[in-house]
From TrEMBL:
Keywords: Hydrolase. Transmembrane segments: none annotated. InterPro entries: AB_hydrolase_1 (IPR000073), AB_hydrolase_fold (IPR029058), Sec-Metab_Biosynth_Hydrolase (IPR052897). It comes from the Bacteria. The keyword Oxidoreductase does not apply. This is Alpha/beta hydrolase. GO terms for molecular function: hydrolase activity. Residues 7-220 form the AB hydrolase-1 domain. It comes from Streptomyces sannanensis.
Length: 232
């Protein structure tokens, strides 16, 4: 049976690689031996894409890139490497050429747009008292508290960084829509998924933090994508 590709997980804004914790455990239990999680600086799309490319190059063999939230923009920009065999979007941005996450959000503002606040250094935060209801209303109080306290704020300018050559135009894609997403409008997710023509779209009754609240379903989609590109 053909080997499945390595899985490289790319986090979004307001978190780091640890946001994938439950998905990582789920993939391990399903026999995935090569799983990596990028820790991006969230300083610019160019920085984050190049940081992701460095990990993909180190893996060497076939790679399935998986992006959550802004991480979808990152895999869209970084997925042009020849060993990237597919892209999985988890409640994620999928910009076209010349588009930015900020532009896409302005076109269809999410429910939690007023929960964001910028600090004097140019970083963009989710207000601590709004984090649970905005980012992951289906998480436990304790899970949301930890994510809120450990949130990793991006440079606000990153929202305006545009994609150059979207990898989804050349690579097979899969997409997970979060029907209760307050950070990206669910209809915006459906719109981005529809124009990509993905192999599969999965809709979950989940918040933006579906990778933490529904890791089994997210891992199901990743596994299906990995099996398909491996010809299983």
């Amino acid at each position: 049976m053909p080997d499945r590709p390595a899985v490289v997980l790319v986090h979004g804004f307001w978190g780091g690689a640890a946001h994938w914790a439950k998905v990582i455990i789920e993939l391990r239990d399903r026999g995935f031996e090569s799983v990596f999680a990028v820790e991006n600086p969230l300083t610019s799309l160019a920085d984050d894409a190049e940081n992701t490319r460095m990990m993909v190059r180190q893996v060497g063999g076939p790679v399935l890139l998986v992006g959550h939230s802004y991480g979808g923009a990152v895999i869209t920009e970084a997925g042009d490497l020849p060993n990237v065999v597919g892209l999985v979007y988890v409640a994620a941005f999928a910009p076209d050429a010349g588009e930015s996450p900020g532009q896409l959000s302005q076109e269809m503002p999410p429910a939690a747009v007023d929960s964001l606040t910028a600090d004097s250094d140019g970083h963009l935060w989710i207000k601590r008292d709004k984090f649970h209801e905005s980012f992951g209303q289906d998480l436990t109080d304790d899970e949301a508290l930890v994510m809120s306290v450990t949130q990793k704020a991006p440079m606000a300018t990153t929202f305006g960084d545009t994609v150059t050559a979207p990898a989804w135009r050349a690579k097979p894609t899969w997409y997970q829509v979060s029907k209760q997403d307050h950070m990206i409008d669910p209809d915006n997710e459906r719109r981005m998924a529809r124009r990509m023509g993905p192999r599969r779209v999965v809709e979950l009754d989940a918040s933006h933090a579906s990778l933490a609240s529904q890791p089994v379903a997210v891992a199901d989609l990743i596994e299906a994508a990995a099996n398909e590109v491996a010809g299983r």
